[in-house]
Amino acid sequence: MLFSRAKRKKSRLWLTGILDSVTPKIDDSIVLVAKRTYGYSGNLRVVGDYLSKHSTKKIYLFFEGTLSDSLRAHLTENRVTHLSTFDSKTMKCLLAAQTLIVDHSIRDCYIHSKRAGRKVVNLWHGVPIKRIEMAIPGIEKAHLDTIEQNAKIYDMMIASSRVDQLAISSTFHVPYYKVLPSGLPRYDLFFADLSEYVDLAEQQKNIDSAKSGKKLVLYAPTFRQHHPSPCEQNQHALRKLAAELEPLGFQLGIRTHQYDNSAAIFEDDKNIVMYTGPKFAETNVVLRNTDILITDFSSLWVDYLFMNKPILGFATDLDAYKNEERNFLYDLDDIFPGPFHKTDEALIADLISMIKEQRFTVDHAYQKKLLLPPEENIPNITQQVCSAILE
């Protein structure tokens, strides 16, 4: 399966490479490109919503995945055309569009060259806390060459702050001036009236039903490339934690990374709820319903700073991650906005103590200043990003 998918991608890159050079960029349209494993969410979705309301351009979404009925209805209502398969119509839209917007890589739409008349924007989906792209230790030359080639195609990227602007520029090898330190459009989801969106209102109902009146402790770790899933590593500790939370009126929820397929191991535990899949598509809608966040090296905690609520670190494989996986762009001890635990005993003791003492409000002033835009700029993030896209 992996081989056939890789072979198909290679053939598509070859075909578009030939046709791209002879296709004029005359179609006054915008194509949003969602990665199959991530879906249409986050920065891409928020920007898509804004452009559909404030631009007269034709808007397309290229996503080779399944959309929920409510999201499909939302797209129709906002005049966004879904391109669900890579056929001749989709290829024509991609090659003729004057603007392509991705949130992972330009190669997700099989484009690998810069062409006159086309603007390419990367709304990168995360904040680099762990090492990514060019900063990955021991990066292979083929991967490095791809990053370098992609960097020449991008006309614009975005960053969460001035500090993050430096991180994005250096890891993607994109000139500093091409990275807009606007903040991330998905931050809007912390403040939006979800009832105005068919699919997000449905997700909120799903969350309310899943929580069943309890407060939510969410465990949301990132993926591992060379080691077992953190859920597999810590499943006994997580089961124990969930059992201790239940009589306190708290629920343990788990949100696995999109590349982590370990969710099924908790199907038999009535004290654990999996906040994954299409029912809970928007991460920041889940986070705005979360009372305490437990994470590791995921940048979810940067978004969660808006909530002014406790953030606990937990990774029994912290040393292995530093020495054998990605390591970090920052000093984790300095930047992480809470205690970081390497044992389940320490995590459980700290969390239960926090709940019993009702320590539920935290001001993450240092991390906010470092990694978020100035407070006065937050209401205008999406407008600023979209204005730059449409220039």
Write structural notes for this entry:
Helix 2 (42-54) packs across helix 16, helix 3 (69-77) runs antiparallel to helix 7 and helix 9 packs parallel to helix 14. This protein folds into two domains: 2-183 and 378-390, Rossmann fold, CATH 3.40.50.11820; 196-371, CDP-glycerol glycerophosphotransferase, C-terminal domain (Rossmann fold), CATH 3.40.50.12580. The model has no long low-confidence stretch (mean pLDDT 94). With 391 residues, the chain is of the alpha/beta class. The protein is globular and about 65 Å long. The chain is built from 16 helices and 13 strands. A seven-stranded parallel sheet has the order 3-2-1-4-5-6-7, with helices on both faces. Strands 10-9-8-11-12-13 form a six-stranded parallel sheet. It has helices spanning 2-20, 42-54, 69-77, 88-96, 141-153, 162-172, 198-211, 230-233, 235-245, 283-287, 300-304, 318-324, 332-335, 344-356, 365-371, 381-390, and strands at residues 27-33, 58-62, 80-83, 97-102, 119-122, 156-158, 179-180, 215-220, 250-254, 272-274, 292-295, 311-314, 340-341. The longest helix has 19 residues, at 2-20.
